[in-house]
Amino acid sequence: MQKRQFIAAIGVALLGTGMAQAQTAYPAQQAVKWVVPYAPGGTTDVIARNLAIGMSKELGQTVVVENKPGAATIIGATQIARSAPDGYTVGTADSGTLAFNPAMYRSLSYDAQKDFSFIGGLGRMPLVLAVHPDFPAKNMREFLAHVRSHPGQVTSGSSGPGSPLHVALELFKQRTGSNLLHVPYKGSAPALQDLMAGQVQTMFVDLPPSLSMIKGGKLRVLAVATPQRLAILPDVPTMAEAGVPGFEAYAWQGFVGPARMPEAVVQRLNRDLGAALAQPALRAKFEEIGIQPMTMTPREFGDYVRSEQKLWSEVIRSAKIQLD
């Protein structure tokens, strides 16, 4: 009996050693794939590629960005959700993936609450309300007065139905009781071009693609949808200062993997992501183009996702935005 107990004890010890080695082995001699649900060259791709360089150094393994654009991020999100939960396939999930799509689609190929491991935040892009330079209103009070005296006539562009720019517009309409005419485009680039040309009169824009236009005087910003003024636009009031209290809106991105990833792997990725986000050169580069680093623990990011789901699902349902 003693011999059997001894052999069993040896087995347990060896099993424990093997488990410890398996935990410390990550990442083994294998590249980590970072799935980006957009085409190369956009803000999401820029964030991922810059952070992939820093994380490669922290992990000691190559982090390879793979673009899987299409279907309002659903293609990329589904690939992440259906991957093995071993930490070697992770990726970007944004406000559309996690907060908007569940309310806008009757059926999705992923469950935004159950199919992902939340690793941490990446960055958020403040939204601002911009108008064509010749628009008659010079501030928010005049803007709302003009819109209310011309119901359904003031046009407001967006990068497409269900985009962050569109849902921000719907939240603004609901909070202010204003009747703006939504004009959806296929992407922010053509919408911005028409805003600068005066084909549409106003638009919620995120800063990375529009900052140079704003600083060049091609667009005029009435207010920023952030709690405090932005350092890169110090003379522009917040929505609260401009007379629309409690209005905040960002386009944001987070880092996720498939559900049921080992806790040790999630924590390792979060730690190395935080180290990459803390690099002074990277932070300066992001902040210069209007990206705010969004450092969060896995729990903080999960809580943030759930709060955003609650806010925007109510806005989307009230606005009756349905994409399928």
UniProtKB/TrEMBL annotation:
**Superkingdom, according to UniProt?**
Bacteria
Task: Tell whether NADP is among the UniProt keywords.
Answer: no
Can you name the source organism?
Comamonas antarctica
Which InterPro entries does this UniProt record tie to the protein? BUG, Bug_dom1
Q: Which Gene3D superfamilies match?
A: Bordetella uptake gene, domain 1, Periplasmic binding protein-like II
Keywords for the protein's UniProt record, in alphabetical order: Signal
The residues the entry assigns to the signal sequence are 1-22
Q: What is this protein called?
A: Tripartite tricarboxylate transporter substrate binding protein
Family annotation (SUPFAM superfamilies): Periplasmic binding protein-like II (SSF53850)
Family, according to the entry, reads as follows: Belongs to the UPF0065 (bug) family.
